[in-house]
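Aim 2 progress. For ImuA family protein, the working sequence is reproduced below.
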Amino acid sequence: MPDRDLPTRPASFPLRPARMHEVEGAGRRVFALYQALHHPGPLFWFLRAHEQGVPFLWGLPPGIAARLYLVHAASEADLLWTVEEALRSPAAGLVVAEPQEPLSLTAGRRMQLAAEAGRTTAIMLIRQGAGCNAGETRWHCRPLPSSRGQALHEWRLLRDKRGVPKAWVLDWNGRGPDVAILSEATADV
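Predicted structure tokens for this construct:
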């Protein structure tokens, strides 16, 4: 739990709805789980069939496992197709995908259009530098070392079509929606 002396804020990092957002870095799955806590409804998580390190149901934040649908795609083309179909459905609360290959501008634009059509938010967990210009935002997330038993993270907004890059250091342990913001600054990208 964040320190009681530090201010906590719910939904400190809201993503614009009906848009595709890209997240890279070692902490990208943590960022996606944080967002899942703030997006009601079914959560669809798409991975390649051979992907290791799938989300462990008992280790997820409260309320996530009951609404999580893990989808394993046989190929990259299947993954992108199933993500696009899920995004077009207004029933999905949040769509998270882990493509193995860089997104082409065409694929990224298709995801963006599908998110708009279904009014669904998409998070693409990409490899470092494997994004495209179609996404609304691009984030770099990484865990930070801590000597006090905190769960420290750095979340850096690298690109935002409607804003300026920023960076935050925060304490979030994954047990609830609140986060302690330790620092916030305009990012040098």
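The radius of gyration is 16 Å. This observation will guide construct design in the next reporting period.
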